[in-house]
Amino acid sequence: MEVLLHEASTVGVGGESVVNHQSAEKPVILVQDDTTTDITFTRLPPQQPIDILFQDIVFTASLGFRKGKKEILHRINGRFPPGQLIAIMGPSGAGKSTLLDILSGYRIRGVTGKVYANGVIRNLKAFRKSSCYIQQDDRLQPLLTTQENMQIAADLKLPSEVPKSEKNEIIDEILKMLGLFETKNTKGSGLSGGQRKRLSIALELINNPTVMFLDEPTTGLDSSSCSQCIKLLKDLAQQGRTIICTIHQPSASLFQLFDQVYVLSSGNCLYQGTTQRLVQFLADVNSPCPMYHNPADYVIELACGEFGSDIINVMVDKTSNGKSLAYFNKDILPKLDNYTAGNSVSSNESTTDEGGLQATSSLNQLKVLLKRGYIKTKRDQTLTYMRFVVNAFTGVMLGTLYWQAGWDGTKVLDNYNLLFSILMHHMMSTMMLTILTCMLSKRNVDINKRTFQQMVLPKNVLHCRYAVIIYTMTGQPLEMNRFCMFFVISQLVVFVAQSFGLVIGAVCDVVNGTFLGPTLSVPMMMFAGFGVSLRDLPSYLYWGSYISYLRYGLEGIVGAIYGLDRPTIFCPDDAYCHYKYPIKFLEDIAIKGDQFGNDVIALVITLFFFRMLAYALLRYKLMAVR
Ligand SMILES: Nc1ncnc2c1ncn2[C@@H]1O[C@H](COP(=O)(O)OP(=O)(O)OP(=O)(O)O)[C@@H](O)[C@H]1O
Questions:
Q1: Within this chain, do residues 325 and 415 fall inside the same structural domain, yes or no?
Q2: Could you tell me the CATH number of the domain that includes residue 300?
Q3: Same-domain status, 97 and 172
Q4: Which end of the chain is more exposed for a tag (fewer CB within 10 A), N or C?
Q5: Tens digit of each residue's pLDDT (9 = 90 or more) over 432-443
Q6: From ligand 1's centre to the CA of 90, what distance in Å?
Q7: Residue 374 in domain
Q8: pLDDT for res 549
């Protein structure tokens, strides 16, 4: 691949290209880079190229209750033509990510101004379908291999009518093009930073977007991976895609790979035009780029205000805050007028498109996500084995402590304590694990429909072995129906605790979540009818027993062991057995032994309620961010 630099540029120490500002007009080929393999991507963008134009964009952020508002972007304008690799540059806090969020349609609240696609106000839904947004934090599944990551993306993004062989062909082509074919069987966690970044791009290429937004795609990469990544983007742009990325301070050689640059400073546009004409522009505003200085560095220094605010104002005036196309490539200017309306992302079409962003049915997505969840659970050594070992260990500990208490008439109260301890173990271990993992997944996942689905699927499955260990060691009645009832209630408590953890994880950060989870569980325990029986609960607190899922868990599990007209419990000859008759025990603890069906219904309703609440809270959060 060839790298274009200014005529009088030289290659500096360490191979870094530096640019002599004296001749800004004629780019020549300076460096022949033969490290990159020839890339051929036969899949062209599926629709006509998209020319993005934005006018008078203002973004006002709300600083919180009674804290007022702050204008972040100040009536900026710009044009991002197709077939171009465009860099949005600027100092930290200039508004690059905010602009990217707005243009990609990810942020809509607090935004005014117009965004056009091919000359017509864009249709957001259709635009989102034709574009992709690759965030800084990649969303790769570390436990899945490159091939599996791609396969799942293909199953979710491509219509289900596409045959598997065709999907595999597409995957292979993308992987080959991105130099990832060799890592097909490598797990995400084993990929290098550059490979991870390329895989993030590969995942988005599955449905072949026409517009690609990338937030700092080079962050965390070494210089060779950086240039590989940008060259790849440039190739994709040359096929007619519009590729826009934010970038901090690119080296001179990297900078020259971009076709166009858009410079921001404190929410204003300082420059938009070709990378080559930036030097000319700086000369035109009487702030010429010093000799042997990287123009990208110099313009950032100016944007940071290192040379005063006057020059910033001059630059903003000169570009008319992004309106001026004077520094655009003269060859593409006439072409811009040809990008006419009538595209699927225009406002006139697709307004009735209710198909959402996904190409496949919800049922198919559910199937794919379940499959992914299964593979992840199987491979998650820490969680799966730790959970298994901890469960088995707790089972053996409780089994030893309450050895054969289930059939012994002298140990009925002990057995009752055991049943409550089992519920506590299910509740606490599942809830805390969910709070923590929910935080982790929220951190690196943009909350979209798939995330919701992923988060609302019940995933924690009680190990049957745990139930068998504890049930047999503690001598509970060896009757299939009682064991099944015990197992069903235990599993439902696990699911409800997981959902409760999701609700907390959806609203709190990790510190507040780990505090709030156990704290809110205390009233659940209080109202379960264990310490204070339901009969003794003050009438003004009785409502609490209806909302405590542990109450239904306890009632169901006690009913499984002591209900169903269980006959007299064995009592050693020389012992006094106060609770020889299960019915008397149930009366004393004020628990009915025949409520299993109602308990299951109550737990299922609670499960459904918490799942919906978690879904609504996440959705609300997403809307608030947008
Ligand atoms: N929702 C918000 N509430 C308050 N301030 C915000 C909000 N969104 C953005 N800002 C502020 O707007 C400014 C621009 O933020 P943005 O993330 O777009 O900057 P950036 O140029 O991408 O910075 P960086 O390169 O450091 O990522 C920052 O000062 C940021 O604090």
A1: no
A2: 3.40.50.300
A3: yes
A4: C
A5: 877 876 654 444
A6: 12
A7: no
A8: 93
H or E segment and range at residue 617? helix 596-625
Is residue 401 domain-shared with residue 324, that is, in the same domain? Answer: no
* Cα 545 from chain centre: 37
Distance 92 CA to ligand 1 centre (A): 8
Instruction: Say if residue 244 is in the same domain as residue 391.
Output: no
> Domain boundary at 336, 361, 392, which?
336
State in Å: Cα 80 to ligand 1 middle.
Answer: 21
Residue 600: which residues within 8 A CB-CB, separation 6 or more?
488, 489, 492, 556
Q: How far is the CA of 133 from the centre of ligand 1 (A)?
A: 17
Domain count, the chain: 2
Mutate which of 67, 69, 97, 213 for ligand 1 pocket (most atoms within 8 A of beta carbon): 97
Tell whether 291 and 388 lie within a shared domain.
no
Is residue 304 in contact with ligand 1, taking CB distance under 6 Å? no
Which among 474, 478, 492 is positioned nearest to 419, based on CA atoms? 474
- The boundaries of the domain holding residue 202 are 51-336
What percent of the chain has a predicted confidence (pLDDT) above 70? 81
The reported pLDDT for the residue numbered 200 is 87
Band (pLDDT 50/70/90 cuts) for residue 17 is very low
Per-residue confidence (pLDDT) for residue 447, from 0 to 100 = 44
* Ligand 1 pocket residue status of 68, Cβ below 6 Å: no
The amino acid occupying position 111 is: V
Instruction: Summarize pLDDT for 88-126 with one digit per residue, the tens.
Output: 999 988 999 999 999 988 888 889 999 998 888 888 888
The pLDDT value recorded for residue 59 is 93
111 and 204 part of one domain:
yes
Residue of 57, 70, 72 with the most ligand 1 atoms within 8 Å of its CB, for mutation: 72
What's the average model confidence in pLDDT over 169-186?
86
Structure tokens that stand for 242 in this block: 């519009």
Cα(268) to centroid of ligand 1, in Å?
13
Once rounded to an integer, what is the mean pLDDT over residues 166-176? 87
In this structure, the answer to whether residues 297 and 396 fall within a common structural domain is no
Q: At what angle do helices 146-157 and 362-379 cross, to 10 degrees?
A: 160
- Token digits of residue 384: 């799966």
Is the C-beta atom of 329 inside 6 A of ligand 1? no
What does residue 3 show for φ and ψ, rounded to 5 degrees?
-110, 125
Asked if residue 363 belongs to a domain, the reply is no
Over residues 24-33, the pLDDT tens digits come to 333 333 333 3
110 within a domain of the structure (yes/no): yes
Query: Is 42 a member of any domain?
Result: no
Centre of ligand 1 from the C-alpha of residue 61, in Å:
9
Characterise 21 by phi-psi region: left (phi > 0), alpha (psi -120 to 50), beta (else): alpha
Shortest-distance Cα residue to atom 28 of ligand 1: 93
159, 212: one domain: yes
- What's the CA-to-centroid distance between 18 and ligand 1, angstroms? 31
Across 565-572, average pLDDT: 88
Instruction: Tell me which residue has its CA closest to atom 4 in ligand 1.
Output: 61
Compute CA distances 275 → 49, 241, 301, 561, whole Å: 21, 18, 16, 77
Q: Answer whether 96 contacts ligand 1 (Cβ < 6 A).
A: yes
Domain final residue pick, 281, 312, 336:
336
Residue 302: pLDDT above 50?
yes
